[in-house]
TrEMBL record:
Name of the protein described by the UniProt record: Glutamine-dependent NAD(+) synthetase
Annotated catalytic residues: 46, 113, 149
Binding site for ATP: 289-296, 396
Top-rank EC class of the record's enzyme: ligase
Lineage: Bacteria, Pseudomonadati, Pseudomonadota, Gammaproteobacteria, Immundisolibacterales
Amino acid sequence: MPRELTLALAQMNCLVGDITGNVDKIIELSATARREHGADLVVFPELALTGYPPEDLLMRPEFIERCEAGLERIRRAVGGIAVLVGFPHLSKGELYNAAAVLRDGETLALYHKHLLPNYSVFDEKRYFRSGSRPAVFELAGVQVGLTVCEDIWGPAPMAQSVRAGAQLIVNINASPFHVDKQAEREAVIRERVSASPVPVVYVNMVGGQDELVFDGGSLVMDAQGRISQRAPAFEEGLYLARFRHGRNGLEPVPGEVAQIDSVASVYQALVTGVRDYIGKNRFAGAIVGLSGGVDSALTVAVAADALGAERVHAVMMPSPYTADMSLEDARAEAEALGVRYSVIPIADMAASVEKALAEEFAGKPRDTTEENIQARVRGVLLMALSNKSGKLVLTTGNKTEMAVGYATLYGDMAGGFAVIKDVPKLLVYTLSRYRNGLSQVIPERVLTRAPSAELRPDQTDQDSLPPYEVLDAILELYVEQDRSAEDIARATGASLKTIREVIGMVTRNEYKRRQAAPGVRISQRAFGRDRRYPITSGFKEPRGD
């Protein structure tokens, strides 16, 4: 009777471009998988050697040379276990997104990714050529077939491997998170298994890389399409998967199946994105302008959970229009989280700016200009604190505000990372209540009072915007699904007048978004590298009746 086959799934957090560091981690994890777990194969994510996505680093010859040297170092250093590693492979002048299986100085298999995604946040056709051949190798009496990430989203690569004799498919990934992405992945893998009934091992990386967050969720699916094992989301580590030969062929030994919670996953994505952006870029910590409103409240909570309270500095910058309850609630949250808290009034500074501009503004009424001066004074203060401390300013604007331009360029948009840039306003409230379910840190009044920028007397957001229930619904259909005004009206019941006003705001404020800080992507279509529209454009939405 053949023995069990043991795979160690390395849910690894890579640093893009740090080939030496990534190789060190691969060698260390491989040794652990062999020494402590007796694994036959340790499986690393797609492009684990470089991190994902390496973007135009792939165009630098010295970068590819270092990758080749790194792969050779793994080949020499690891023994007694097979290692499956993703890397860029230069062959006959063409670059491939590749996977190699190394054991005791030899290459057991080499695979070139067949399907290259070139949509959404992916642009692999800019860098890589497609492969066309399967790669199947023998391991402990089992024929194992290789695929890479997007290959599992189309039927041909896995079917080709099974026709070539594969009894088990290993699919390595750098699959970024968005809401409910894990359910989509598992549905697609189940489709592949229904057509080619062999077990699938799916290994995904974890960690943040600029806007993208990778959530792990590595899993094993049996030949009947059942999840026999699922690794925890957002947790780096080695997860063992065992297989035995049964009556119906190769069968996975059931393991732990980590549960998935949609809201918790989004919150974990934000925490992971902040932790890795600040950590990998070696900032000392984070600075947040804490206003007493819900957006900054959620941002500070995420920062404290990501970095530890001792590395977070919350700054309240009251103006003459700041309500007493805003001051009280901001202080209460800072104390509940244990972060450093400062109060720096801005009235005198804003007045000085207005005085300097008095001659230029003579005869002109007060308007949003004076409101924006307050926001820009705050931006100056936060950036000065950032320069002096080495901490990064986290901006607090949500996706709804970014969409319609309800933010001040060089004011509340000033900063290095936009934590909730892809989080619609209503989801901000949901995430805040979720965080309070872990421990009460955001005052209840913050979640129930009418939102306000507090830049003029008695101001509320709804003075300038439709109700958020209406606005978020319109924006989801227009921004994320490219639906027409008429389609949106039928789907939401909102008036065409309101919808067209919202679309106009989205279009006019493209220039602001182009200057915004990067932020964590949690939706299927985020502003930035995902949704790319021209700033200068003569296109107008059709005006059907």
